[in-house]
Amino acid sequence: MRFKFVCLSAVLMMTLRFGMAQGTVPTFTHESGGKTYTLVGHDPAQGTTTTIPTVVVPVTLSFESKKVAGKPFAMDATSDVPRLLKSPVFSKSSFGVAGTTQYGDALLRSTFPKATNWHTLLGKPEVKPVTVTIPAGYGYVLTSKKTSSEVAVVDLEFLQKEIFKQVPKQDGKFVLAVTHNTTFYAMGDATVCCGWGTHGVDRATGNSFVLASYLHNAPTIVEDKDVQPITQQLAEFLNDPLFDPLYQHEQYDQHLSPASVPGNVVSWLRPAAMKPGDAGRCGGTRMGTTYFLLQPTDTNLKNNFPSSKPSVVSASGATYHVQNAALLQWYIGSSETLGSTFSFPDATVLSEAAKPCPTRRAGGNFPGPAKPTVEPAALKGGDNGHKLIGYWAGYGSANSTFPLRDVSPQWDYILVAFAIPDKEAPEGTMRFHPPTGMDDATFKADVKYLQGKGKKVMISLGGGGQHFTLANPARVPNFIASVTKIVEEYGFDGIDIDFESPSLSIDPGDTDFKHPTTPSIVNLIEALRKLHDHFGSKFMISLVPEGTQIPAGYPSYGGQFGSYLPITYAIKDILTFIDVQDYNTPPLQGLDGEIYQAGNVDYHAAMTELLLHGFNVGGDPNHFFPPLPANQVAVGFLVGDASESEVNQAMDFIITGKAPAGTTYKLQKPDGYPEMIGAMFWTIDGDRRGNYNFSNSVGPLLHGYPSHGK
Fold first, then answer.
1. Which of the four pLDDT bands, split at 50, 70 and 90, describes residue 361?
2. Which of 115, 348, 532, 585 is the most buried (most CB within 10 A)?
3. Which domain holds residue 528?
4. Catalytic residue among 236, 500, 546, 594
């Protein structure tokens, strides 16, 4: 292994080969194990000091979805700049053996501890403020009623592009764009949340940059503080300065190989580094986790504000919280030139190098045995009006099919996943066939068998990863005809609508959920009514929106936020039930004025009561979404994400009003909602592989309540 200084022209040629502009800061390469890694600064062997000219860009976010005195609410980072300049990002702080210096310099010196008289510093910055308007479909603001403090949730890619429309190429300079109390979602999809920022090379301008948030007087639900988000992204930038933030979206859409894009890739960890602080989940192939660009020291899971234990340091006479970040050697192992510690500033946070993630089984990742080792609970008693609802995909394990007739008797409504868009047929056409290994005759017989047991079997349309829209009215007849054929051929009791973002998105200017104008929504409503008219009053229709598509309509209405509200309102007279996915969701706000994150009883109760109680759409009292009857509302859970106790406590709280210990949310209706229909799970298959851990627990709970006179 050796160091090698790479001149800018050589790196430029390399990056042009990949089709991306070169960044504007000096870089050097380190070779190890036949792989080359690019880092910020100059070759440590030269023992020189590199001072990087810096531009700080405080960003004011102007939110169209939140008005104060008739004007858009602004989240302004300008007042954070003096605190930032006094922080360890720019000012000297003591970092032990790494010296008294800036955070970034100390991190690099901890990476190469044998390099003497070697420093990489950020110069005294220019300050160039910008203002970015956030349309209703690109972010929203959450306010804590208790503390009168705010935190924003914003589309990261949108914001990056808007900032660099105003910040042209900064030759030889590093751009640090700073927002105030803002978290971000990725992929243009607010269910892919949350991160504290991004970093790398902006494709449009070629600027080397970090975009991150300064946290000051944020709501108490936000655990990180002051410069922790900024130091997190700065640490990743120093270790991977050629990263292309837009790459992950393209990789997902175009199935690109990580090696096809500039930047440091650690895919030889087969396939990615484990993330020890996140329940052992895989962290991805870059110097930060996939999508959220978090560190292995972060402990929060998807859907929540990032959080991790910081290192507390002093700079300019004040206390700051900086990110404990993984060093290069955590990813690739220590060596003669790299240090023997794996995290910085606290070397004890990561005690050993990264471990490879386990390889998925052939045919998919289906943990657990093909057949359960316990018996499903018997269904006792009559129909009390409460239902256990689940999605069946038919996969027992990686190489086996789970027959439909073998579902536990606890399941009342079985939603078959999925009928999907037929790309080889006229636009709007849906197609369905049973899982591989199951013939039509067997499947149809199983449908009739379950129906003979009093079960309802529905076909779910869409599913995650399937883009479908009826924006063109010419597609509506194809949709109606194909769905009619599927329902009639297989004998389904009805249909479930699972068109996730970005399939349904409210057009700009469409502001009244009672009178929608977005073609994809208007045409879907028309199609559902025609299908119901064709099959009659017993035809079942259910909706399974993501968290962004119903409860996110409370703080903001537009784009993906609240996109199911006009559909729900328009078909409420023919709607069988709606179950919001409490697992595909960003942090949101309850009727009590507090902010809630997914994964607990408070969240399930707060988000479900929005539908049960009604709410002001976009916070506007002129657009009140009326409450739905409780027997039309269910809660959506994810097998493998929720726990049995969490689900049982949430259902009992919502139905009876009896709050479990530790609950902070108080129902608007203290006695609960005894007519509430029940709980939905993705999936029945996963529950079976888990030895019926949910159906054997939640099913008897729901079926054991007194009848509510359905």
1. very low
2. 585
3. 387-703
4. 500
